[in-house]
Q: What sequence folds into this?
């Protein structure tokens, strides 16, 4: 049975200023700064720039006019449906410059943290149920034992932390990406959130893949439902870090020039996956990294700190996948291991699966199979490494043989001699170098 993911409930657009749940002065100043920085004059343009419905934007314009910060230009623009134009007064320019000195942020109105929490619940990673079929389809390009999918499926559906461990070169990273592809549904990522009057930008085009929205059909009986455009509809995010991960990358990033904050990686990955690849290769000890995740993993919340030192809670709704080539007992204590919900060993393929992978790669790379070469590989070469197979080896050997064929000017066709030459590049001979 093909289980389609249930569509996530979209955040409804605010209808009034009261529903915004933001400080009035903050909203007014963002409107003034956006008008100033983008050189806008009309409500329609401004509404689009601050990502609010026109009626709410008009309320903010009217408020600024009452306070003598904006004035109507007295001209109607024929190109915009006869909209009235607005401009900053002298007092408005003064207020805008003062507001910019406090924070350079302008554009999309932020979403209050408490409002964002509700949306996180609606699109929680723990609401997802992934079927065996979805997981198999997402990993169709990988040759995996059935038992492995049986371990991965419950881990993904639980939305809890996963530790994948085993020898290098057996597809732990590819499996992590397959898990992401199996999810398939969409979430709403705020452009920015607000806490205690501070703006924290969340949407990041490098991390988030925005989904193209269908245009409204003016002839349709029912118009497509709209959502709060302070959010961007995206694929479930995936953050992948490797040896470069440090503890300070999990803290808020303060920009002293703009006087705004940028969300840390784990907050950007909310509703999606955070992959810590090559655990044990970071400058921080693995135990220290795991200790940083203990509260988020156990309590579903993270604690961040502002420049002032004030700490506050944010939702932690992320499937964390740790991937390592080390045995877990060598890099963690038992208390840390208890906090990682699923531990899954990713072994190399057996000979049968190795040959399947080898044949698939050869076909994809237009390398003709040769029985004598395969017999030589299995009976002569692999016994020298105790018949330990790895998923990366077929690609490596076939790419090597193709490179040799290209150099020698011969057709792509494997042979025992080519196997020997390719094999010589897969391992470095253990020997002393005389200086």
A:
């Amino acid at each position: 049975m093909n289980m389609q993911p249930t569509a996530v409930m979209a955040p409804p657009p605010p209808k009034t200023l009261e529903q915004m749940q933001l400080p009035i002065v903050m909203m007014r100043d963002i409107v003034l700064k956006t008008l100033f920085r983008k050189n806008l004059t009309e409500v329609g343009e401004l509404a689009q720039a601050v990502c609010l419905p026109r009626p709410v934007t008009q309320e903010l314009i009217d408020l600024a006019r009452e306070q003598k910060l904006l004035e109507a230009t007295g001209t109607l623009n024929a190109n915009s449906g006869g909209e009235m134009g607005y401009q900053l007064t002298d007092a408005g320019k003064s207020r805008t410059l003062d507001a910019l000195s406090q924070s350079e942020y302008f554009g999309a109105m932020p979403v209050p943290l408490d409002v964002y929490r509700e949306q996180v619940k609606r699109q929680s990673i723990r609401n997802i149920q992934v079927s065996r079929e979805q997981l198999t389809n997402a990993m169709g390009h990988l040759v995996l034992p059935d038992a492995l999918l049986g371990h991965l499926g419950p881990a993904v559906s639980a939305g809890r932390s996963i530790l994948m461990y085993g020898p290098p070169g057996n597809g732990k990273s590819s499996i992590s990406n397959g898990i992401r592809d199996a999810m398939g549904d969409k979430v709403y990522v705020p452009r920015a959130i607000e806490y205690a009057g501070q703006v924290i930008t969340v949407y990041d085009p490098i991390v988030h893949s925005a989904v193209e929205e269908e245009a409204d059909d003016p002839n349709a009986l029912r118009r497509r439902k709209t959502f709060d455009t302070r959010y961007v509809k995206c694929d479930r995010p995936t953050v992948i870090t490797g040896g470069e991960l440090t503890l300070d990358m999990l803290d808020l990033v303060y920009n002293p020039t703009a006087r705004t904050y940028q969300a840390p990686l784990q907050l950007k990955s909310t509703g999606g996956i955070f992959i810590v690849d090559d655990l044990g290769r970071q400058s921080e000890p693995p135990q220290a990294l795991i200790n940083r995740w203990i509260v988020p993993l156990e309590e579903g919340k993270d604690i961040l700190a502002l420049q002032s030192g004030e700490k506050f809670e944010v939702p932690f709704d992320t499937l964390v996948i740790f991937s390592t080539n080390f045995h877990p007992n060598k890099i963690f204590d038992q208390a840390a291991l208890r906090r990682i919900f699923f531990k899954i060993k990713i072994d190399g393929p057996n000979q049968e699966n190795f040959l399947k992978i080898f044949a698939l790669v050869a076909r994809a790379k237009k390398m003709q199979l040769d029985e004598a070469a395969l017999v030589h590989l299995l009976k002569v070469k692999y016994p020298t490494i105790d018949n330990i197979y790895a998923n990366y080896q077929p690609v490596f050997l076939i790419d090597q043989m193709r490179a040799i064929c290209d150099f020698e000017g011969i057709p792509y066709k494997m042979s025992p001699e080519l196997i020997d030459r390719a094999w010589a590049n897969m391992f470095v001979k253990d020997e002393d170098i005389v200086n």
